[in-house]
Each structure stands twice: as structure tokens, then as C-alpha cells.
Prior knowledge:
The structure holds two protein chains of two kinds.
Chain A: E1 5-7, E2 10-13, E3 19-24, E4 31-37, E5 44-50, E6 53-57, E7 65-68, E8 75-79, E9 88-96, E10 107-110, E11 114-118
Parallel strand pairs in A: 2-11
Antiparallel strand pairs in A: 1-3, 3-8, 4-5, 4-9, 5-6, 7-8, 9-10, 9-11
Chain B: E1 9-13, E2 18-23, E3 31-38, E4 45-50, E5 55-56, E6 61-64, E7 70-75, E8 84-92, E9 106-111
Parallel strand pairs in B: 1-9
Antiparallel strand pairs in B: 2-7, 3-4, 3-8, 5-6, 6-7, 8-9
Amino acid sequence: xxxxxxxxxxxxxxxxxxxxxxxxxxxxxxxxxxxxxxxxxxxxxxxxxxxxxxxxxxxxxxxxxxxxxxxxxxxxxxxxxxxxxxxxxxxxxxxxxxxxxxxxxxxxxxxxxxxxxxx
Amino acid sequence: xxxxxxxxxxxxxxxxxxxxxxxxxxxxxxxxxxxxxxxxxxxxxxxxxxxxxxxxxxxxxxxxxxxxxxxxxxxxxxxxxxxxxxxxxxxxxxxxxxxxxxxxxxxxxxxx
Lengths: 119, 112
């Protein structure tokens, strides 16, 4: 079965550095998402992306964050200047869309996550 | 904030049915009930969803009350690999963003 992949699995960076987290969503999916999970806390929505633009973002997703779909397969999350509090698991997800039911439901497929550690 | 309420933890004996309850008393008519689970910091995994009727797939069954204010996820024969955090999420099916709002979920511990 197709799956969402993410690279790297673990990223260690110094505070203030830029990081790019990469995701390859499932090929025929059209909606893409980033979530994060700080250790011991709940999964939090960051941003949704459709038709090459952001469709919704949370208040966590400030100017330090950006997303891009640079080609037909990759979906990236960039953090421009990392802070200690950005340390978390970052999950990419994409949606199975339609199957004859239009927009009536969605099933999100999550990647395995990237653990970001900011020192 | 999450629109659902779940018990923080439950135990279940291996091989027995695990029944995980969820309250969603403010659910609106076009909102689906979704269940996801997260096994030890892996990415969340979709389990099942429903609108009004009970649903069953290869993983689980979902029982939704007639007034839709609560539901129960049933794992018919729990195994040790079902130990995970289970999330009940309500989400408008016609939403053009499809974002999921996770609560704290129920930590299910399946014991031998």
C-alpha cells in the first residue's frame, strides 16, 4: 500500500539555524498537511496546503515557517530560524480524496515523522 | 480545541474486546466522527469514520448513538500491538481544509 515518507527521520540543529523537513505524500493525493507534536503533548495542526497554496494555518505557523511543493512529489516545511521550543516531532499527512463520495469525508495518511532537536 | 471527551486511559486483556468511549455532545449534523491511533510516537493512523450509521472495517467497529452525541470504538480481539493512544475526532466532512484537531486521546494498554 502506498505510504507517506519523510526525511530525515531525525534532525539536530543549532538554535537560529534554518531547517527543511521533507515529505513525499501519496502520489494521487491533493491535500497536504504538517502537524507537530512536542514530547508528551498532543498532536497540533500547523498548516494545510492545496493547489499550491496554503489553505489554512494555525497560530503556531508564524512567519518563521513556510511550506512549498517544489516539484510534483515533494512537500517541504522550512523553519527559518529555529528556536528551542521548535523541538518536536513533525508529521506530514495527505488525504485520500473522493472515491465517489466527493468531499464527504477524508482519511488522512500520516508519515512516520521527523524528530527535530534544537540545541 | 477538540470537540470530544475521552477517558485518559483504559486497560484491556489480550484477546478481549476493547471498547473505547467518546463524547461529542456538540457535534453538528454534517460532522463525521473519526478515530485515529498513535502507536508510541509513530505517525497517527486512521482507523475508521462514521456519520450516523454504525460502521465496521477490518480494524474495528464504530457504534454511534442515535442522537450522535457519543460513540464507541470497538476492537473486537485486542492484541498487544493495539496498545496505543486512540483519538476520537469530529470533523466537518465538507471542510475544504480537512485539518484534524487532536485532543489528548485515550491511552489503551493491552495486557497479556
